[in-house]
Design a protein that fits this description.
The chain is α/β, with parallel strands linked by helices. The protein is built from 16 helices and 17 strands. 47% of the residues lie in helices and 14% in strands. Strands 8, 9, 10, 11, 12, 13 and 14 form a seven-stranded mixed sheet that branches.
Amino acid sequence: MTRLFNDPRAFADEMIEGFVAAAGRWVQSAPGGVVRSTQADEPTVALVIGGGSGHYPAFGGLVGPGIAHGAAMGNLFASPSSQQVYAIAKAADRGRGVLLSYGNYAGDVLHFDQAQEQLRAEGHDVRTVTVTDDIWSAPVDELHKRRGIAGDLAVFKTAGAAAAAGYDLDGVERIAKHANARTRSFGVAFTGCTLPGASEPLFTVPAGKMAVGLGIHGEPGIDEVDVPTADELAEMFVDKLLEEIPQGVELEGARVVPLLNGLGNLKYEEMFVVYRRVAQLLGEHGLTAVEPEVGELCTSFDMSGVSLTLLWLDDELETLWTAPADTPGFKKGSVAPQRAAAAVVADEVDASVPDASDASREAAHVIGAVLASIADTIDEAADELGRLDSIAGDGDHGIGMQRGSSAGSDAARAAVEAGAGAQTTLTRAADAWSDKAGGTSGALWGEMLRTLGARLGDTDAVSAEAVAEGVEQAKDAVMAFGKAKVGDKTMVDAIAPFADDLARRVVAGEGLRAAWGAAAGYCERAAQSTSALAATLGRARSHGDKSIGTPDPGAISFALITKTVHAVLTQGEQTQTKEQ
């Protein structure tokens, strides 16, 4: 378990601060993560990688000559926010374009895509290649649904080497896609991992058993088998990976890069025993191992586990894999001399607010009170939300919601104190929530608050009709943004019935408080009913059946928030009645 921490909510930020202090030879702090502290004389395409923290040396540990130019670093097991990705990519871009690359997880896709759209709107040439190497997470006919695990390194290393060699953005993108298409991984675990402040691991493995097909975010394995010997594990790895030879590869005489990756709490000596048999088996199949790596390459906090990755080479990929690299967490050969890069300076934040009507400012005060109450409610519920999320997911929903709601509340309070109207207050809360929470829920809550704010505006009085329409529009925005529908076992299973019932009641003439309260009750029942569903989207998708019997944590947190809003509205109405 994790023993050394201060405030669990500050763990990722403090970890990044310490990492930068220790690795200043390679990296410097930048808003959202780290970028290189050195640069080559000639500008190159910038490779920007990223993901949740808890995976060192991924992602910040792979920033340096020969690999990445910057890494957006999210909270523990939570994707970085779009603001983080945007800031890191903008800081890393030297005018030759940016390639974004990361593991294929729902939250990462949402945030990186948002950042890409913003960067493109400003004139940056930006492309994306997601890593999809985990063969256990989706069948071969659904490669695009697979998640990225230790194969991240194979893609990042070859793409970074292509950038260093002077490839243009088309070329670097081509190499990243090619490397990803030729990379396959398979992992197992003997214990789960425990996040800072948590008393229990995200999942457990029965004594004498091994979890098969785990993810790198504390997701439980998809199957359990008896713990094998080291040789038997090596044979399982090789047999499984050789069942799926990438298109265009001839098995006999092929050259491969084996990456035996420790997930955080496995001894190197044990891995060497396993790799001894892996090397023998590859040779018996007529394969040549090229510059293999054995060690911690992409971890899962303190998980005891191991994965094997095979990168199937051709001449170009071999040249790029063997090219020099010098980063805090990965080194190969000797890189050309570098010079110090200019320090990254954070943009100044404009605290001024647009003009607003008195009625909208009054509504903003209510919004600020609502968001403060939401933060308190989520703070109390964070442990339970994390527990629900750990059953089939990665256990970060509670801490993500905690960080997001707290940041949203602080931003709303500052906006209200500056005289903001409803839209500006909600927009600033949305940006802060999304930025600090990261993950899928952070992106979706940011989208909801932003959409609701756009409907309310800064000049009009806030009516029940406007709120109901804004909530309905927020529902539509979330469904379009996250691609979820009712029945997928996501937050949408609570949002949709709430928004539809609220709109129906307001149209029928009910006041906002009464309509909201009734819709909140309906929403709570809908959220609880998700326990009968199997997850079909997000990180829980690979463990869909395991989620049956447990409600979706995103739906539960949404329902909890609707009840909190109703309590604030009720309190406000009671206060007005007393004053009258």
